[in-house]
Amino acid sequence: MTEPSATGKIAIAAPPEKVYALVSDPGALAGMAEEYEGHRWVGAADGPAVGAKFRGRNRNGIRRWSTLSTITDAEEGKRFAFEVTTVAGLPVARWQYDIEVSGDGCVAVESTWDRRPGWLRGPTSLFTGIWKRDDANRANIAATLARLKAAAES
């Protein structure tokens, strides 16, 4: 896999299983993320398992949009990841949370890969209002990880 387009990491004084429970729950994740604000499971899915799909609701100011995510990795206490597409099925991004055991808890690493084809970047930037997606994602990851740390350590 190529290098992520944005990534960040943070030490958390909590067990890896607790951190995993937070990042693998799309509802809990919505409370920590910057743009992502909620979800609903699609089809027979009712929880975080490989192959499960959820429709994500996202926002930036007054702009709102929906995406479809498919869970690709769900290894408790270690990794949770999903591929994001437009509602029309065009690739958007991959989001991945890696959790590594450390001395007094764990280290959480959040990464994303921009999967949009070049021709889709302009229209999606216009729609979302975010022109420097990698810069925005780096800032969003830092904010999400800080909230994750606070939630896991409480």
TrEMBL record:
Annotated SUPFAM superfamilies: Bet v1-like (SSF55961)
Superkingdom of origin: Bacteria
UniProt cross-references to Gene3D superfamilies, sorted A to Z: 3.30.530.20
Name the UniProt record assigns to this protein: SRPBCC family protein
Species, as recorded: Amycolatopsis alba DSM 44262
